[in-house]
Amino acid sequence: MAEPVETEAREGVLAAIAAYTIWGFLPVYLIFTIAVPATELLMHRIVWSVPFGALIISVRSQWADVRDALMRPRRLGWLALAAFFIAVNWLVYILAVQNQQIFQASLGYYINPLVYVLVGVVFFGETLRVLQLFAVLLATAGVLVLTFSGGEFPWVSLILAVSFTIYGVIRKQISVGAMPGLFVETLLLMPIALAGLAWLTLQGSAVYLEADAGLLALIVIAGPLTVVPLLFFAIGARLLRLSTIGFLQFIGPTLQFAVGWYYGETLTPARAVCFALIWSAVIVFCVDSLRARRKSAPGGNLARAKRG
User: Radius of gyration of the chain from Cα atoms?
Assistant: First the structure.
């Protein structure tokens, strides 16, 4: 029995690494498509996610889950709200990369787990453990250093972290798998995206109208770049322990930080201190999570996360 479990864990790790690696190098794609305005690229991302999402839903035989979500008004309403926040997250991320703020985008996903902790305390009555409180204070100190010493309020980081946290909290309250949920969200956003593209087309200001074959191909790739990493993440989350996913999630922002450095973003002293404090907070957060899970799991065996 040990061998199948080890095989599943290995597959889960590879799937999760693939997801976070794609997300980590996403700024490179956005730099290659910088000729497309952020709003237009967002519209293409939504539109092209639908056919690629439908393909994966078909392969995974999840149309029943999609129909179930569409037939339940309350669930559909929550998915519509989730769609709004993920669209905000996507738009701000694209704008950040196009305006050479990749470091801020990276920072947003580093502090995202800490925002989850704060949401748990404020809205769900959870209690902060000592190390969690210390991690939050370190992250807050990093933000304050960047704001007052560097003269750079990290609004991009905070919007990305807060919007993705709200999106995650909403999705956590809805009994629908990752892929069916994303498909319904993009389906709900699609009419708005199509209307926007139609308006740009009529105005003659749509970039895709004059794009060459290479840029058009990159625009279409926005679909699989949205759907495929989520599929990998869903596989990894289903096969791996939550603690493992917790550590692997920092691959994405670390790669984003490296991409920002490669493309010449300036690591000012204030940014360096900010990231040092954030990285310290991440280490403290991970150590605390690992200790908590070891204490709560009988015999050290952690339950796997059952996600779809």
Answer: 20
